[in-house]
Amino acid sequence: MPSISLTRHLIEEQRSGHVTPDLRLLLEVVARACKRISVAVGKGALGDVLGEAAAAGGGDSINVQGEAQKKLDVISNEILLEANAWGGHLAACASEEMEHCQQIPDAFPRGNYLLVFDPLDGSSNIDINASVGTIFSVLRCPEGVSAAQDHDFLQAGSTQVAAGYCLYGPSTMLVLTIGHGTHAFTLDREQGSFVLTTGHMRIPAQTREFAINMSNQRHWEAPTQAYVGDLLAGQDGPRGQDFNMRWVAAMVGDVHRILTRGGIFIYPWDRKDPAKPGKLRLMYEANPMAMLVEQAGGAATNGRTRILDIAPTSLHQRVPVFLGSKDEVETATRYHLQHD
Ligand code: AHG
Ligand code: MN
Ligand code: MN
Ligand code: MN
Residue ranges of the Fructose-1-6-bisphosphatase class I N-terminal domain (predicted)? Predict the structure, then answer.
């Protein structure tokens, strides 16, 4: 069996009518940008890529989330913007690292798609040489809009035409959906191309593994306390079985594990900062991951509602996240709905 490159896979999807030529080009460009980010991440301490980014006037650079930006947050954002500027397939980009969306420069033609990304996910892992990733989501630009604004991005996740992530781990992997299954490609570093290594990923419906930052336990609401408490009680509790815990601290890493062997990933609402309903961002973290997980037979909710049905109200909106093995996400959601 000859190996199937990302390019061949996308051409075949175009022939099947699943992807337009413009969307195919867009996904190729995102994949190329991810290869460049992979090279930058891989330089580690030998390149000038570790540590915090400096603000123009000195001190640390703080992004719209109120987080200190790492150098690689900024480098990855610039690589994605630059790679996508000239292809003619995009109307605008929005990113975790930019307060507002950025239109395609006037020098280039504008296309019909909107690209949203978390250029570097899990950036606290950079300086310890652990896995990080890039997450992206593709939306259609609303009809008749030539200069897309932030509000043009505010579409429910169910309207995404494509979503994916690139994991920069021991190997670099691109995991992609265009609404016809979730497929994993591994970067062949000698050839420089992504090769299909797992087509149609399937998440087992049941699991004995969960992922949550337990240090926030005292800030959770009662149903989250009850649900996780019952997982921790193991075979002595109402679940009647033991559960294992894993936490990569990069959503891309945790979701990749779940796509590979099942599990539930949770970043719940907590009262640490009542102004923020959860830590993760709907548009460029929860929505693309929810689409990938659903396309692999899993489920994704905010504890009560399907993530992909949420109507966004702002670009950087945060949302609680429960995603992964279908039966387990349904159980966690039931704890919350029964409590209301
Ligand atoms: P980002 O680095 O893009 O800001 O995202 C970080 C997120 C996500 O990747 C991860 O699941 C979570 O933060 C980790 O949170 P803790 O710091 O609570 O472990
Ligand atoms: Mn961040
Ligand atoms: Mn992130
Ligand atoms: Mn990020």
Answer: 5-197
